[in-house]
Amino acid sequence: MTIPLKSYRDVPVEPLAGKVVIDTNNYYPQRDGHIAELDDESTTTSELLQAHLPTSHVVKVFNNIWFGALAALARPAGAADRTALAIAGDDADAKAQVTAFLDTIGYDAVDAGPLSEGWRYQRDTAAYVSLYLGPGGVEDMRSATAEQVRTALAAAVRYRDLPS
């Protein structure tokens, strides 16, 4: 699902019943309007989507990498410079399916845990876009190993804990 987060309630429920739904959403209040439960960090974007799609299996991935880097950074399995992407989900089988999909398109997966941990790679965290883009921006794309992704996830700080 790749739509502005503010439109998540428009996603049809019944056609996605029993299916794995890959969630690429990020919350931008200036675009999406303020969503109280995201502002107070009592839930995550993917948990909102999962609540809206109760019979689906939501897995968060692709939200923290610039779309242009996806083709540029894909590598075969075992490559020393293979890029890893964080995933989060509440269903182990759904996460296994997404991990297998990532492998087929040239990426390793790092399991960040349940959907409630998806905040660790949302905007303004160490595991968001800049992990894959160097100081030169899109001209300076770089792979991020599984260990680098794990380190960035561990370094994540909640918005409420950021210095003012």
List the helices and strands and how they pair.
Blueprint: E1 20-23, H1 29-32, H2 36-39, H3 45-52, E2 57-60, H4 67-73, E3 84-89, H5 92-104, E4 108-111, E5 133-134, E6 137-141, H6 146-154
Parallel strand pairs: 1-2, 3-4
Antiparallel strand pairs: 2-3, 5-6
CATH architecture label: 3-Layer(aba) Sandwich
| Tally of helical segments | 6
Shape: globular
| CATH topology call | Rossmann fold
Residues in helices, as a percent range: 25-40%
Strand order of the largest sheet: 1-2-3-4
Going by helix content, strand content and strand pairing, the class is alpha/beta
Largest sheet: 4 strands, mixed
Average residue pLDDT: 93
For the terminal residues, how far apart are their CA atoms?
33 Å
Uncertain spans: none
Report the CATH C-level class. Answer: Alpha Beta
CATH homologous superfamily classification: NAD(P)-binding Rossmann-like Domain
Percentage of β-strand residues: 15-25%
Describe the protein in words.
α5 (92-104) links the parallel β3 and β4 (108-111). The protein is globular and about 40 Å long. It has a single domain (5-158), classed as NAD(P)-binding Rossmann-like Domain (Rossmann fold, 3-Layer(aba) Sandwich). The longest helix is centred in the middle third of the chain and has 13 residues, at 92-104. It has helices at 29-32, 36-39, 45-52, 67-73, 92-104, 146-154, and strands spanning 20-23, 57-60, 84-89, 108-111, 133-134, 137-141. The strands form two sheets. A four-stranded mixed β-sheet has the order 1-2-3-4, sandwiched between helices. The protein starts with 19 loop residues before the first strand and ends in a 10-residue tail after the last helix. The mean pLDDT is 93. With 164 residues, the protein is of the alpha/beta class. Helix content is 27%, strand content 15%. The protein is built from six helices and six strands; from the N terminus they run βαααβαβαβββα.
